[in-house]
Amino acid sequence: MKFRQRAYRDEPEINFIPLIDVLLVILIFLMVTTTYSRYAELKINLPTADAAKAPEHVEKIEVTVDAHGAYLINNNRVANKGREALAEELRRAAGSMKDPVIVITADAQATHQSVIRVMEAAQADGYGKITFTTQAEKK
User: Are strands 60-65 and 101-106 parallel, antiparallel or unpaired?
Assistant: First the structure.
């Protein structure tokens, strides 16, 4: 009876050293490229306010200036283009309003002077709230 000697078999082994090297390189890369957020160094408490709700109905006078310098106040044409005539029409349109908002809608081709004339008329009447309307550019 012949007994054979067992052939020595190499067990497969997993080499962890290259894996550890790759993980360390990834860890170093992440540490170098990461930005850490810094919190404010001053501790502040922001004030609070209990503001009244904005009025839903705003008293306003709409002034329209076309490209030729003609004026409409609340859709009523103003015959004279002078500052005094505009001031008179603004007073008439305001009626019993205390401090109306003057909304100026001017054509893009309207002259700068025609818009300034409306602002001067509003100032002459003592109206300090003036705003302009615009439209978004079409894409």
Answer: parallel
Q: What share of the chain is helix, strand, coil (3-state, %, to 5)?
A: 30, 15, 55
Burial of 60 (0-12, 13-18, 19+ CB in 10 A): middle
Rounded CA separation 110/71 (Å): 11
Q: pTM here?
A: 0.57
Q: Which residues pair with 71 in a beta bridge?
A: 65, 78
Sheet holding 71-73: strands in order across? 76-78, 71-73, 60-65, 101-106, 130-132
pLDDT tens-place values along the chain, 139 residues long = 666 666 677 777 888 899 999 999 999 999 888 876 665 555 555 566 666 666 667 789 999 888 888 898 988 888 877 888 899 999 999 888 888 999 998 888 888 899 999 999 999 988 888 998 877 766 6
Going from the C-alpha of 62 to that of each of 9, 84, 120, 126, the distances in angstroms are 98, 17, 15, 16
Domains of the chain: 60-132 (3.30.420.270)
**Calpha distance 95→37 (Å, rounded):** 58
